[in-house]
Design brief:
The protein is of the alpha+beta class and about 425 residues long. The protein has 10 helices and 28 strands. It is elongated. The N and C termini lie far apart (about 75 Å). It binds zinc ion. The site of zinc ion (ZN) has 5 residues, from helix 3.
Length: about 425
């Protein structure tokens, strides 16, 4: 009797679920709202659709078993990206944790800042938003992180740029979400200028999932950018009847030119095709007939299988992760130097380096060299996380930071140069900031 009971219990025990990351491209019509649920149940909501779109988002939250949004990101200040958040914030059943946006509201037109929708955004969550800068990382849990690749028109590794006059779309926050070897790029409505800056530095290479920039607009998803991303699956979050006519046929044609061509999905069928709007085959449209909100696309990335399953409507298919994708090149810069500390130079001179890349960098073999060829080892810094900075003290090492100026060069363990900085002089106790 006991023996059978044990067997029955074993048979009825659920299979080990494994570690999965779930991404919901929520059907909010014209707009974006993307929910990321980590293996430990932590959540990131990127954008919240247009005004009044809290209903489809809260129903997806409910179906995902989620009542807390640990991190919310507004990619930029267009209503089709923040319109639903006041309604979610007003819902007592939903808790919203850390809020991030691109900041710099001073650059917005006066009438935009005065609009009731923008004021509702600020009152609900905008006033407490953290200004997310490129290079910062949102840690979702110990397996999932979101690195900010671009924000406010500046990309990772770029110095602060003067943003006046840049298009609001192009100032969107762009995130690279990483789950072990799985990569998901979501860039709000960034357009060609920011795409070009990302491509120039090859910041994002080889992704499994790409949420098409700016809803598949013709002003985004340039061929050079896509050739770096080489996405396996592309999701276009679009409306059915918007005068913007997303996706544009020219963008669908560019995606089809990639080798191999990605699987391209739309949340909705565009009925306003006219001359330049387009559609993928109905089989790849989550909501091909109707104008309601049932076009949500779910991507489930599994750690043990290293596959992603894409589900919508009554359709589901599974693809392998893009294994072997080239890791982004290490990108470490000299942030600042202290040539003339208040105290003994040979002990207290210091240099701060920063990891501007999207991957952890092991600095144990790296070193700094001055114009005279003397060096400091960086081994004491160990590994630096993306966005992290580390400061090394001279502590008796040979290289000296000249008080009358010097050139300091940063090398990796293969003696490849990564950064160099020349300064003309130093003031006691004051760091020289490189601007790198
Ligand atoms: Zn948009």
């Amino acid at each position: 009797m006991m023996k059978w009971l044990v067997v029955l219990l074993m048979l009825s025990a659920p299979a080990a679920p494994g570690q999965v990351l779930k991404i919901y491209a929520i059907d909010v019509g014209q707009g974006d709202a993307t929910l990321v649920v980590s293996p430990s149940g932590k959540t990131l909501l990127i954008d919240s659709g247009g005004s009044g779109k809290e209903a489809p988002i809260s129903s997806v939250l409910a179906s995902a078993g989620v009542s807390t949004i640990d991190h919310y990101v507004t990619t930029h200040y267009h209503l089709d990206h923040y319109g639903g958040i006041p309604g979610l914030a007003a819902n007592p059943a939903i808790t919203i944790g850390q809020v991030h946006d691109r900041g710099d509201t001073a650059f917005l037109p006066v009438d935009k800042r005065a609009s009731s929708s923008f004021r509702a955004y600020e009152k609900s969550v905008g006033f407490r938003a953290h200004h997310l800068m490129r290079g910062e990382t949102i840690g979702i849990d110990n397996l999932v992180s979101a690195v900010c690749i671009a924000s406010g028109g500046a990309v990772l590794g770029e110095p602060d740029t003067h943003t006046t006059g840049l298009d609001e779309n192009d100032m969107s926050i762009a995130l690279l979400i990483t789950f072990s070897g799985f990569h998901f790029f979501v860039g709000g409505d960034i357009e060609r200028p920011t795409e070009q800056d990302i491509t120039a530095e090859h910041l994002v290479q080889g992704v499994d999932l790409y949420q098409a920039n700016h809803h598949g607009s013709e002003s985004s998803s340039s061929l050079a950018f896509l050739s770096d991303l080489r996405p396996t699956v592309v999701i276009i979050s679009n409306g059915d009847n918007s005068s913007y006519r997303h996706p544009r046929k020219v963008t669908l044609d560019t995606l089809a030119m990639l080798t191999p061509p990605p699987v391209v999905l739309q949340t909705n069928k565009l009925f306003k095709v006219m001359s330049d709007g387009g559609n993928v085959n109905d089989r790849f449209i989550a909501d091909p007939e109707t104008v309601d909100d049932d076009g949500t696309i779910v991507v489930t990335a599994g750690l043990s299988t290293r596959t992603m399953t894409v589900s919508y409507r009554d359709t589901s298919f599974t693809l392998p992760w893009k294994e072997g994708a080239a890791e982004p090149a290490a990108r470490v810069v000299i942030e600042k130097l202290l040539p003339d500390p208040a105290g003994l130079d040979r002990d207290l001179e210091e240099v701060t380096v920063r990891n501007d890349g999207t991957a952890q960098v092991d600095l144990t073999q790296w070193y700094l060299m001055d114009a005279g060829g003397s060096v400091w080892s960086l081994s004491i810094l160990g590994s630096l996380a993306p966005g992290a900075a580390g400061t090394v003290l001279r502590a008796g090492m040979a290289m000296s930071l000249g008080n009358e100026g010097d050139t300091i060069i940063l090398f990796d363990g293969d003696h490849a140069e990564h950064d160099r900085f020349t300064y003309a002089g130093a003031v006691e106790g004051v760091s020289v900031v490189t601007g790198h």
